[in-house]
Write a structure and sequence with these properties.
CATH topology of the largest domain: Arc Repressor Mutant, subunit A
Number of helices: 7
Distance between the termini: 55 Å
Mean pLDDT: 82
Number of strands: 0
Order of helices and strands: HHHHHHH
Number of domains: 2
CATH class of the largest domain: Mainly Alpha
Helix content: over 70%
Radius of gyration: 17 Å
CATH architecture of the largest domain: Orthogonal Bundle
Largest sheet: none
Strand content: under 5%
């Protein structure tokens, strides 16, 4: 059963892990630790949600625990005012998953974690603040900073691609 469970979810969960760290080796370490937790606590799965959702929650929590120590090495600044001109919508349709993953991985760790939790996992800033022991304003400002950095990366990538075809 463990092998079947691992084979079913490992690929998708590795992508989740890679969004929370800077390289594949760290992602594989997180994934391995997460599946050890899954196998040790599978009897606690109550069926309140799908098994896939439960496994994903274990993986995300393991990735957050892995990064939690690193977050304190890179302090996050609470910014009360965000320039509304810098909060344009991101357009992702022109990018491959690998390109987007590399961009997310290149974000500063605080921005990376909060971007993943808010934009991809769907947590609210209030929930993120509680989980990471930061203020809600810090979560919002780190998300805004992540968006701005991603927009700059996309603009740079678009400029390079445009120049290549000139």
């Amino acid at each position: 059963m463990q092998r079947a469970l691992y084979e079913r979810y490992a690929g998708a969960m590795l992508v989740v892990c890679m969004r929370y760290c800077k390289n594949k080796d760290d992602a594989e370490d997180i994934l391995q630790e997460a599946f050890i937790k899954v196998f040790k606590s599978i009897q606690s799965f109550k069926g309140d949600s799908t098994l896939g959702y439960w496994v994903k929650r274990v993986v995300i929590n393991t990735a957050l625990n892995y990064q939690r120590g690193k977050l304190y090495l890179f302090p996050m600044v609470d910014i009360n005012e965000i320039d509304p001109k810098q909060t344009q919508d991101l357009t992702l349709s022109n990018y491959q998953m690998e390109e987007l993953l590399k961009m997310i991985q290149s974000l500063p760790i605080g921005c990376q974690v909060i971007f993943n939790m808010y934009a991809i996992e769907g947590y609210k800033h209030r929930e993120i603040a509680k989980m990471l022991d930061i203020s809600e304003g810090t979560s919002k400002s780190q998300y805004a900073r992540a968006r701005l950095l991603l927009q700059q990366m996309m603009a740079d990538a678009d400029k390079i691609n445009y120049e290549k075809y000139q």
